[in-house]
Amino acid sequence: MEIAGKVAIVTGAGAGIGAALAQRLVTGGARVVVADLDADSAAKVAGELGENAVAVGGDVADEQVVAALIEAAERAFGPVDLYFANAGIGGGPGLDSTEEQWAAAIDVNVMAHVRAARLLVPGWVERGSGYFVSTASAAGLLTQIGSAPYSVTKHAAVGFAEWLSVTYGDQGVGVSCLCPMGVDTRLLSGDLIPENPEAAALAIKAVKTAGAVLSPEEVAETVVEAVAAGHFLILPHPEVLQMYRNKGADYDRWLSGMRRFQAMLQTASR
Predict the structure, then answer these.
(1) Rounded to an integer, what distance in angstroms lies between the CA atom of residue 121 and that of residue 112?
(2) Among this protein's residues, is 150 annotated catalytic?
(3) CA distance 62 to 187
(4) Which key words tag this protein in UniProt (predicted)?
(5) pTM above the 0.85 mark?
(6) Cα angle value 225/226/231 (rounded, 5°)
(7) What is the mean pLDDT of residues 48-52?
(8) DSSP bridge pairs for 135
(9) What is the number of other CB atoms lying within 10 angstroms of the CB of residue 44?
C-alpha cells in the first residue's frame, strides 16, 4: 500500500518509533492520528506535523479508546486505511513478575492489537482495502533475556499478525509485523522493566550486544518501504533473519547458545 493520500492511526506515537512513523507518514503525504497514553506528548508531535495530524490521548488497550481514535480519524480526514499498533510496554522480569505486570503486558502488547483489528478489519474486508502493522520485536521471533512478559507477549503479537495475514490476506487486508532489535527509544534507556533496574540492565545489555542500535527514523523508513512492497516481516536488523533460521534449524543448539549468551552478560555485569 502506498501511503500518499491515505489516513493512518499510529499508537505509541508520542515518542520513539511511533513519533518517527507519524513524521514519515505525513512527509509521504498521509494524514495521521497521533495516539499516545501521554496526551501532551501526542499533542506535541501532532503540533509539529501541522494540519495533516491530530492528537488523541488515551490507553489504546481500551477498546473504547481505539473506537475514539477511529472516530477522530474519520471526522478529521476520512476512513482509516492504515493502523500502526505500535504502543508497547516491557512488563516484569522473570518468574517474580506480578500478576499485574503480566496482565498489563498482555493487554498492551497483544490485546490492544486484537481490539483494534476487531474494529477495523471487517470494514476493510467490505471495502477490499486496509493495512494493519503490528510492532512486535525481534524478541517475538527469538526471545528477550531478562523479561518473561515482554518475550512472551511479543511472540503472541507475531502470532496474531500471522493469523490476520492468513485469515484476511486474500480479502484485501495487508498485514506487516515489525521485529527490530535495538532502537534508540525509552524502552532501551530503562523503561523496559522500570520496577527492576537489575533485570532491565541485563535485558538492555542483551539487546545492545546483539547488534546495532538504530534510530527511530531509520526504522520508520524501513517500515514505510515494507508496507509499500507488501512485505509481512519487517526486519530493520537484517541479521535477525539468520538468527531466526538458526533457531529453527537446531532448536536445542540455539537454546544452549542463548544460555551461554545470558551467562556471559551476567558475568560481565558483576
Answers:
(1) 14
(2) yes
(3) 22
(4) Oxidoreductase
(5) yes
(6) 155
(7) 97
(8) 178
(9) 17
